[in-house]
Design brief:
alpha+beta; Rossmann fold; Dna Ligase, domain 1; D-amino Acid Aminotransferase, Chain A, domain 1; six-stranded antiparallel beta sheet; 13 helices; 16 strands; globular
């Protein structure tokens, strides 16, 4: 087991446990918690994929273990030492699935992400969540599976039904029926676990990402909305076609009511990350998907809207019988922050960081 202790500071309350420490999402969660002096411990498995994020100083402590069973064992042992339940944050879909799989072992010691009375794995299926959103009155793209895909209008986007089975790198576009037959039907085994959806043609600015949470005390809370305003593409043909992307905080009043509706109906006890796209054909925003975790842009909401990781932590961990939190003042203070539109955040790729480092190093 590798274990590293980091930032020495004055932190309050119990501890937040972040599952995964190898990406922007986990670092964004840790930064957001740290802004409110909430201690965070990141746990992850040994991974061949090297990431700069695992060396972030945002984590107060980092624990790297050999496998997921070892993480469960470590969490249970940690949980037995806590005076009250800790809060688990899943930073990617693998750890959302982890929480579903090991909930019974962990629920006595931690607030574990869950959908009360329903299967989280079922709703992580891209087509199932679209069916659910449609049942609530949302406008959604036509969608189906491989066998029925020739009934869709082109162009089509093909994406993993479940990202723990296939990765985002498997996402592809099909322009016409000829391509569907030649490029998809010829490789049925590859595409059998994929969702086929009509592709909504839109500019990057028309994609709205929203993070929200259904709190115990205040009900649905929207932390922020943002859109992608610029993408810098690489001219080279390699693994990192995108050098950087620029996001901007925004607010779309027309989406507020519908977002709160699905948040309340799902009643998920952690972060929801949703995507909507403006469809010029139907002249409305279409619901595209929801992820049962924070998105990689979580820190943009923290600096321009509400600090959702801290809100979730306070809402779940503060004991109402404890006089220190009787009026829930710490939780309430997090909800009064003024929203700022037009705040920009640049996401740089690993390749861009490498290029910058190489130029700096050889100039020395």
């Amino acid at each position: 087991m590798n274990k590293r202790h980091k930032m020495k500071d004055s932190y309050t309350g119990s501890t937040a446990y972040i599952l995964g420490c190898n990406g922007r999402t986990s670092v964004g969660i840790a930064r957001s918690l740290g802004a409110e002096k909430i201690k965070s411990v990141a746990l992850d498995v040994q991974n061949a994929r090297v990431s700069n994020f695992k060396y972030s100083r945002s984590f107060n402590e980092e624990i790297i273990l050999n496998d997921y069973d070892a993480i469960v064992h470590k969490l249970v042992n940690l949980g037995k030492t806590l005076d009250k339940k800790g809060v688990l944050f899943a930073s990617n879909d693998l750890y959302v699935d982890f929480c579903e799989k090991y909930r019974d072992e962990l629920k006595n010691y931690f607030h574990v992400p869950e959908l009360p009375g329903r299967s989280l794995n079922y709703f992580m299926n891209k087509n199932n969540i679209l069916d659910y959103a449609k049942s609530l009155g949302f406008d959604v793209p036509n969608h189906t599976n491989l066998e029925e895909s020739n009934n869709l209008n082109f162009p089509i986007i093909i994406k993993p039904l479940h990202t723990i089975i296939n990765s985002k790198s498997d996402i592809c576009f099909v322009a016409n029926e000829k391509s569907l037959i030649e490029d998809v039907f010829s490789f049925k085994e590859k595409f059998k676990n994929m969702a086929f959806q009509e592709y909504v043609v839109a500019e990057s600015r028309d994609h709205i990402e929203i993070q929200a949470y259904n709190s115990k005390l205040k009900g649905p809370i929207i932390a922020g909305m943002h859109k992608k305003i610029h993408i810098s593409k690489s001219k080279c043909d390699h693994a990192y076609p995108t050098l950087a992307s620029t996001l901007e905080s925004t607010w779309v009043p027309d989406l507020e009511e519908n977002v709160k509706k699905i948040v309340a109906n799902l009643n998920f006890n952690s972060a929801l990350n949703m995507e909507f796209i403006w469809d010029n054909k139907s002249n409305t925003y279409k619901f595209i998907e929801v992820n049962f975790r924070h998105g990689s842009n979580v820190f943009l909401d923290t600096i321009s809207g509400l600090n959702l990781p801290a809100i979730i932590y306070r809402d779940l961990s503060e004991d109402e019988n404890n006089s220190q939190f009787k009026d829930r003042s710490k939780f309430s203070e997090l909800l009064v922050k003024k929203r700022r539109e037009g705040v920009k955040l640049i996401h740089e790729s690993n390749e861009l960081l490498f290029v910058i480092f190489k130029r700096w190093f050889f100039k020395k």
